[in-house]
Specification:
A middle domain of Talin 1; 3 domains; 19 helices; 416 residues
């Protein structure tokens, strides 16, 4: 216990004995010093039976609050511009190509399945970028469910194919305006996936799908893609740092005059919460619910509830989720949250990096999530366990290390 405190003090002040030096006494007022001593002594007795790594993170979080000197501005710039804005720009570019291919689609694919396969490939490329960005669901991305309803509505198992088919067989005009008035479960990537990877009767055969892509069914597909592009373009514009009132600049200019964030600390809390939410979503929603491992599943296996069930790309989505989450944490080639953690607690940052690598490695071992669940493979359980360990690192230790004030969603009732 004592050695660990000395190590933490060394990280902050240069060497453990400095806590008792004249240099520190000059730096701190007597009141601040007494408060600090009291908090250290209080934690020494209150945390006797706590987990040592969590305790260490808590001490570091305490020190971060009292003696914070890390400048987060470069990290906020890198995350908002090099990760968020950059990827949304890439997503819009890919969606333009997707839209162009769809507008040129002949009736019944002109009996050429190559046209359909080209569209399916374009959908996969666009959706993969979105899965990297799924960690970002705040600010200009708070309308995320308009382009991807599945994560929030997984219990309803979107897309709502009954309503989609009713619209196709109906008489109302099918255009962006009418589709935009429908529920999120009838729009976005999941609805488009259904039309591209299923003929409406359960067949995934390319020729069967092509044969059905004519008339109002083709129109629904094309107008859905047009609406998707419009919504993505709007989000991209709102993140673009060159546009007036963009959210990238808002993240970088926190302060008393900022409408959204009064301090950099508030921004960092928001970013950490995005990471925690993403890990919990992968663990409980994307893996735990369909496999019957999460509490909300009631122990029932529901492989028909996996994400992207029509294209059968659930595990690919998770891999891109993890790639995006890690890039978000690292700062996308520039300084990121990782730099902040390393500044105050290098061992914690190293453990986070190691755990993320373990989770990614286990995800790569699963070739098909649905098949692995149905076969009773231990890989899914092992993956779920690693995700839970990663969740604890982010939601407990990372939050404590940075002195975060948000309340992580730990009460999921699954015993962790």
């Amino acid at each position: 216990m004592r050695d660990r405190k000395k190590l933490i003090l060394k990280n902050y002040f240069g060497y453990p004995g400095l806590f008792e030096s004249r240099r520190l006494r000059k730096m701190l007022s007597s009141i601040t010093l007494n408060i600090f001593l009291f908090l250290i002594l209080f934690n020494q007795f209150a945390c006797k039976h706590s987990n040592s790594s969590t305790e260490e993170a808590s001490y570091s979080g305490l020190l971060a609050n009292l003696f914070s000197s890390f400048n987060p501005k470069p990290s906020l710039k890198s995350i908002s511009e090099s990760f968020i804005s950059y990827n949304y720009s890439d997503l819009e570019s890919k969606t333009i190509s997707f839209k162009t291919l769809a507008s040129a689609l002949p009736d019944s694919c002109n009996s050429q399945t190559g046209n359909l396969i080209g569209l399916q490939t374009s959908w996969k490329e666009s959706y993969s970028i979105l899965k990297k960005l799924e960690v970002v669901q705040f600010g200009a991305s708070s309308t995320y469910t308009g382009i991807d309803s599945w994560p929030l509505n997984y219990l309803n198992n979107p897309p709502d194919t009954v309503k989609i088919e009713a619209s196709i067989s109906g008489t109302e005009t099918l255009n962006e305006t009418t589709l935009s008035s429908k529920t999120d479960n009838e729009n976005g990537f999941p609805a488009i996936e259904y039309l591209l990877f299923d003929n409406g009767s359960g067949s995934k055969d390319a020729a069967s799908i092509c044969a059905g892509l004519t008339g109002r069914r083709k129109t629904y597909l094309q107008e859905s893609i047009n609406l998707l592009y419009t919504r993505i373009s709007r989000i991209n514009s709102n993140w673009n740092p060159v546009n007036s009132g963009n959210f990238s600049t808002i993240l970088q200019t926190a302060g008393p005059l900022n409408e959204y964030y009064k301090s950099d600390k508030e921004v960092l809390d928001t970013l950490i919460k995005q990471i925690v939410n993403m890990v919990e979503k992968i663990k409980d929603v994307k893996v735990g619910y369909p496999s019957g491992l999460a509490t909300q599943s009631g122990g029932v296996v529901r492989t028909s509830y996996i994400e992207s069930r029509y294209s059968d790309r659930s595990i690919e989505n998770i891999r891109y989720n993890l790639e995006g989450l890690f890039s978000f944490y690292l700062g996308a080639g520039g300084p990121g949250i990782s730099d902040y953690v390393r500044y105050y607690n290098l061992p914690l940052d190293l453990r986070i990096r190691e755990k993320v690598a373990q989770v990614q490695s286990k995800a790569n071992e699963i070739s098909n999530l649905k098949e692995e669940i149905n076969s009773g493979s231990t890989k899914v359980k092992e993956f779920y366990t690693l995700l839970n360990e990663l969740k604890i690192l982010f939601s407990v230790e990372l939050a404590a290390n940075l002195g975060s004030t948000f309340t992580p969603g730990l009460g999921d009732g699954d015993g962790d």
